[in-house]
C-alpha cells in the first residue's frame, strides 16, 4: 500500500521473511514509524538509535547483561517479591481486592530502579516525593506535561550520575556502576548525555514489558486452575524455601518457563515492530525499495492458525520440550537478530522468581467475569486494570 505521505508500506506476516528482515537483512533497515514519539522519552538510547551510534552503545552495554551479572541481581528480585507479599497478605487479611495490574507494574518498576541505582533508589529517588517514575506506567499519553516530567527526571538522574562520578552515592553493584565503567573501542566512556538516554531506555524497556506479561500471567492462571496447580507443584519442588533459589533451581522450572512463553505468545507486550528500509532489499516474492516502511507484528504472527493450531487457546504444553524443529513456529516476543532484546534473560529470571515465590503463597481469583479488552498502543496491555481477590493458601 502507499501511505498518505506517499511512502510505500508493507505489512509482512510470513515467518521466513520476518526472520530474514530481523536477522540476515537487518542492516538494510532502520527503526521505523512511531519511534519519533519514543525519542521524546528516550533521546538516542539503544532502542531508538541506529547505525554506528547503536552499534557502539550495544557493544558497551551488552556485557552488563551477562548471565553472571544478572544472577547478582537475584537478591533484589527476592526483596521486591517480599514487599509484594507483605502487601498482598494485608489485602487478603482485610478481604480487600488487589489491583494486579498496578501491583505487577509497581513490582517491575521497583525492581528495575533498584537494579540500576541500588541504595540510591531509596536515598535519592524515593526522597524526591512519590516515586517520580511511577507516571511512566500510568501515563500512556506523550503530551506536554509528560515532557515536563521527563525533564525533571533527567535532572534527577543527572545529579545521581554526577555524584557517582565524584565518588559519592552508592558503591554497590548495579546497572549504573556497569554503565559508568563501560568504554568503547577507543577506551571512551559514555558522556553524561549518552548515559541519561541509556538510563531512561533501560527503565522504560525494563519494566512495562515484564509488568504487562506478569499481569496477563496472573489473569491466565486464575482462569486455568489446572495450570496454577502444576506451577505450584513445580515451585514447591524446586523452591521449597527462598534459600533454595539459584540459577539452577530456576532453570529447572521448565513448566513455569512454558507458561511464561505461552503468555508471551498470546500477549506479546511489543506487539508491533516497525522498520524503514534505507536500501533495496530483494525478498523472495517482491522487492522492498529504499525508503519503504515495514510493519511486522508478533501479536498477529503468534495468532496465525497456519503456524499455531487453535491460536487463541492458552496451552502451555505447546512449549513442552520437543525434538521437532521450532523454526516453523514463529515466536518473536523479544525480536530476533542483532537488535534482539538485551533484557530477555533478566526478565525470565524476574518473572520466575515472582511466580515461584508468590504463587504458592497466594491464590488470586478474578472478580470480573468479562474477558479484559486489549489496548494496542505502544505496548499491548489490558484496556482496564485487572482486579483479583487474594487469599493466603
Ligand atoms: C517480557 C519482557 C520483555 C519483552 C517482551 C521485551 C521485548 C523487547 C523487544 C521486542 C525489543 C526489540 C524492539 C525492536 O527492535 O523494535 C526489545 C529491545 C530491548 N529490550 Fe526488551 N523486552 C522485555 C524486557 C526487557 C528488560 C527487563 C530489559 C532490561 C532490563 C530490556 C531491555 C531492552 C533493551 C535495552 C532493548 C534494546 C536492544 C537494542 O536495540 O539493541 N527488555 N525488548
Low-confidence stretches: none
How far is the N terminus from the C terminus? 55 Å
Count of DSSP-assigned helices: 16
CATH architecture: Orthogonal Bundle
CATH homologous superfamily designation: Cytochrome P450
What's the number of extended β-strand segments?
A: 11
N-to-C order of helices and strands: EHEHHHHEHHHHHHHHHEEEEHHEEEE
Bound molecules: protoporphyrin IX containing FE
Strand portion, in percent?
A: 5-15%
| Spatial sequence of strands, sheet with the most strands | 1-7-4-2
The backbone outline, from C-alpha atoms, is globular
CATH topology-level fold name: Cytochrome p450
Report the sheet with the most strands, covering strand number, pairing sense and barrel closure: 4 strands, mixed
Helix/strand/pairing class, anyone? alpha+beta
**How much is the average pLDDT?**
92
Q: What Rg, in angstroms, do the CA atoms define?
A: 21 Å
Number of domains: 1
The proportion of residues forming helix, as a percent range, comes to 40-55%
Q: Which CATH class applies here?
A: Mainly Alpha
Put the structure in a nutshell.
It contains 16 helices and 11 strands.
List keywords for this structure.
alpha+beta, single chain, 16 helices, binds protoporphyrin IX containing FE, 393 residues, Cytochrome p450
Task: Walk me through the structure.
This protein is of the alpha+beta class and 393 residues long. The protein has a single domain, classed as Orthogonal Bundle (Cytochrome p450). Helices cover 49% and strands 10% of the residues. The chain is built from 16 helices and eleven strands. The chain has helices spanning 15-22, 35-42, 51-61, 67-71, 74-93, 100-117, 120-125, 135-138, 144-165, 175-181, 192-223, 225-238, 247-251, 254-266, 298-302, 344-358; strands at 9-12, 29-31, 98-99, 273-277, 281-282, 287-288, 293-296, 362-366, 374-376, 380-382, 387-392. The strands form four sheets. Strands 1-7-4-2 form a four-stranded mixed beta sheet. A three-stranded antiparallel beta sheet has the order 3-11-8. β9 (374-376) and β10 form a beta hairpin. α12 (225-238) packs antiparallel against α14. The longest helix has 32 residues, at 192-223. The model has no long low-confidence stretch (mean pLDDT 92). Residues 46-47, 58, 201-202, 205-206, 209-210, 213, 269-270, 273, 333-335, 339, 341-343, 346-347 line the site of protoporphyrin IX containing FE.
Amino acid at each position: 500500500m502507499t501511505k498518505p505521505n506517499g511512502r510505500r508500506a508493507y505489512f509482512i506476516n510470513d515467518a521466513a521473511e520476518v526472520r530474514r528482515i530481523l536477522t540476515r537483512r537487518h542492516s538494510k533497515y532502520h527503526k521505523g514509524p512511531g519511534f519519533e514519539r519514543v525519542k521524546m522519552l528516550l533521546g538516542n538510547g539503544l532502542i531508538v538509535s541506529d547505525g554506528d551510534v547503536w552499534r557502539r552503545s550495544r557493544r558497551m552495554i551488552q556485557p552488563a547483561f551477562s548471565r553472571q551479572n544478572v544472577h547478582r541481581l537475584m537478591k533484589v528480585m527476592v526483596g521486591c517479591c517480599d514487599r509484594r507479599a507483605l502487601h498482598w497478605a494485608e489485602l487478603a487479611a482485610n478481604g480487600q481486592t488487589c489491583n494486579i495490574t498496578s501491583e505487577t507494574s509497581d513490582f517491575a518498576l521497583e525492581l528495575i530502579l533498584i537494579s540500576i541505582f541500588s541504595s540510591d533508589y531509596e536515598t535519592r529517588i524515593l526522597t524526591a516525593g512519590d516515586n517520580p517514575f511511577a507516571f511512566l506506567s500510568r501515563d500512556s499519553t506523550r503530551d506536554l506535561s509528560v515532557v515536563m516530567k521527563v525533564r525533571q527526571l533527567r535532572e534527577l538522574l543527572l545529579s545521581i550520575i554526577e555524584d557517582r562520578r565524584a565518588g559519592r552515592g552508592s558503591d554497590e553493584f548495579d546497572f549504573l556502576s556497569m554503565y559508568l565503567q563501560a568504554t568503547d573501542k577507543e577506551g571512551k566512556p559514555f558522556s553524561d548525555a549518552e548515559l541519561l538516554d541509556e538510563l531512561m531506555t533501560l527503565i522504560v524497556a525494563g519494566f512495562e514489558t515484564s509488568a504487562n506479561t506478569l499481569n496477563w500471567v496472573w489473569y491466565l492462571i486464575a482462569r486455568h486452575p489446572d495450570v496454577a496447580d502444576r506451577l505450584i507443584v513445580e515451585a514447591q519442588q524446586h523452591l521449597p524455601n527462598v534459600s533454595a533459589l539459584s540459577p539452577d533451581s530456576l532453570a529447572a522450572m521448565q513448566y513455569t518457563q512454558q507458561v511464561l512463553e505461552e503468555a508471551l505468545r498470546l500477549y506479546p507486550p511489543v506487539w508491533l515492530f516497525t522498520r524503514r528500509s534505507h536500501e533495496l532489499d530483494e525478498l523472495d516474492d517482491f522487492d522492498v525499495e529504499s525508503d519503504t516502511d515495514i510493519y511486522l507484528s508478533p501479536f498477529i504472527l503468534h495468532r496465525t492458525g497456519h503456524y499455531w493450531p487453535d491460536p487463541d487457546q492458552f496451552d502451555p504444553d505447546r512449549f513442552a520440550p520437543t525434538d521437532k524443529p521450532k523454526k516453523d513456529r514463529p515466536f518473536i516476543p523479544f525480536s530476533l537478530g542483532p537488535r534482539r532484546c538485551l533484557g530477555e534473560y533478566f526478565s525470565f529470571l524476574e518473572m520466575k522468581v515472582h511466580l515461584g515465590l508468590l504463587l504458592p503463597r497466594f491464590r488470586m481469583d478474578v472478580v470480573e467475569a468479562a474477558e479484559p479488552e486489549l489496548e494496542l498502543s505502544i505496548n499491548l496491555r489490558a484496556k482496564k486494570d485487572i482486579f483479583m481477590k487474594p487469599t493466603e493458601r
